[in-house]
Amino acid sequence: MHEILLPKMGNSVEEAEIVKWFKKEGDPVSTGEPLFSIQTDKAEVECESTASGILRKILVPEWVEVPVLTVVALVGEADEAIPGHYSAPVPSATQVSAPSAAPVAVSTPAPAATPAPAVSPRASGKNAVSPRARKTALTRGIDPEKLSGSGVGGRVMEQDVLAVAAVKVTPTARRMAENAGLPLTTVSGTGIGGKITKADVSRTLDGGVQPCSCGEGGEGVRALPLTPMRRIIAERMSSSKFSAPHYYITVEVDMSAVKAFRAANQGFRVSYNDLVLFATAKALRSFPAVNARWCGDFIEEQGSVNLGMAVALPAGLIVPVIRNAHLLSLEGLATEARDLAAKAQGGKLLPDDYEGNTFTVSNLGAFGVDQFTAIINQPDSAILAVGQMKDRVVVIDGGIHIRPVMKLTLSSDHRMIDGAVAAQFMSHLKSILEEGAF
């Protein structure tokens, strides 16, 4: 009998929920075949079976959080006996009584004979809270059970706590909002620097902010429930725009040299986006201030360029990370970017694949977009928005010419990057591309 474990999804993931089983007990399974999907604090990931045979028993039902490396199912022969310690019925998330305090810790079973794990239920009448979110909330004096969760089934995740902690609010106003179950992100602050005051909360509770009318429209109106990914995107983009003072710098780049380089390069397949990514990593080595993070009391310049590249998925946006991009050759970077994009499209990304970014590139050129501004992907200090390469009429030395031009826009956090630094960085990036210095 083979034990199927909840895989370790990276150093930052200690527990996860199974949100869907693709097989039911009695179904045949094969090694490498998707068996179930799990929800981490950032994304939903498909997990493959590590054995072939018959799915004899599911030990962990959907919507129940357990630690990584927990035995979640058994795969064996059709007539193979199930070990006695696994024969007890598996409780569902709704059948287990709620704990009176923090969620019950689930001990990780050993590879040998181990009882089926206990489960952490969703408390009746309260939002479920992940252990990490609860710990973060306690250090900030926030009651996590009164927050709106962005996880599966409304589960409160760590980023939900951090989003609320980032909101400027007086202690009295925070208590009033928590007692009323009012998300602070829905309250407009009128205090100094946009701080939410007691009066702001009272006004909202009294009807100063109109409730959402979603689902109450007329014919043809559809109310679409928020997916976990969409909730996380909304929370993080709102938090980024609120906390980081954005400003924008745009340059036009003559891509003639890039176009010629790509046409002449027959050794391996490389896209225009690969060349922009490579040039960006090269430019960041000369501008450590742009490859930095805001840490409250200090600015942390990163020694490595971990380049995030935005990938559009049907459910939303995800940013896989090309680690140590400054050390990769053009071929190595192109291969890594292609592999990460394929994993993202196939739902195969692990948490380590989309964490640790120090700078992000978002390219909408393939969709026919000439120019746009992007919201900084925290904790980065900047993000580069890439438009399409398009033939345009330009004046060079008094003569009229047609050149392939691409517009690049840098969104910067003014807490870290002054305008002159951002301008110098963009000028350097423009020179690398226009000179074809790859």
Number of helices: 9
Give me the secondary-structure category.
alpha+beta
State the CATH superfamily name of the largest domain.
Chloramphenicol acetyltransferase-like domain
Low-confidence stretches: 89-125
Percent of residues in beta strands?
15-25%
> Outline, from the CA principal axes?
globular
Rounded Rg: 25 Å
Number of strands: 18
- Give the total of domains: 3
Mean pLDDT: 81
Q: In CATH terms, what is the architecture of the largest domain? A: 2-Layer Sandwich
Q: Looking at CATH, which topology of the largest domain would you report?
A: Chloramphenicol Acetyltransferase
Order of helices and strands: EEEEEEEEHHHHHEHHEEEEEEHEEEH
Largest sheet: 6 strands, mixed
Q: Name the CATH class of the largest domain.
A: Alpha Beta
Q: Largest sheet, order of strands side by side?
A: 9-18-17-16-12-15
Percent in helix: 25-40%
Q: What would you say this structure looks like, in words?
A:
This protein has 438 residues and is an alpha+beta fold. 26% of the residues lie in helices and 23% in strands. The strands form five sheets. A six-stranded mixed beta sheet has the order 9-18-17-16-12-15. Helix 3 (171-180) runs parallel beside helix 4. The N and C termini lie far apart (54 Å).
Gist of the model:
The protein is α+β, with helices and mostly antiparallel strands. It is built from nine helices and 18 strands.
